């Protein structure tokens, strides 16, 4: 996926989550260990959101492409984020996925898609 396409889909995902009451914390927080597409707040919970775009759902959804290695990178990036933003250190956290497929993209929000200890 091109960077431009990725940015556009991330903005759509961010708008979807805002419409459901989540608030922005950070976008594209990149660290040596990995990148967090979106970090948002859902009440008192910090939400790390992975956005996955597939032109076609024929090869499975975007969430299915998040294997154990990718989950580990996301968890490590979340740890770095928390260490650099101590105000969130004690907040409950979760990992969500927003799948996008098709043209124009259709979005599906998967709350609590995986856990840090999966």
Automatic annotation (TrEMBL):
Domain of life of the native organism: Bacteria
Matches recorded under Gene3D superfamilies: 3.40.1350.10
InterPro entries: Restrct_endonuc-II-like (IPR011335), tRNA_endonuc-like_dom_sf (IPR011856), UPF0102_YraN-like (IPR003509)
Pfam families named in the record: UPF0102
GO molecular function per UniProt: nucleic acid binding
HAMAP family: UPF0102 (MF_00048)
NCBIfam families xref list: PRK12497.1-3, YraN family protein
Similarity annotation: Belongs to the UPF0102 family.
Descriptive protein name: UPF0102 protein E4582_08595
Organism, as annotated: Luteimonas yindakuii
Higher taxonomy: Bacteria, Pseudomonadati, Pseudomonadota, Gammaproteobacteria, Lysobacterales
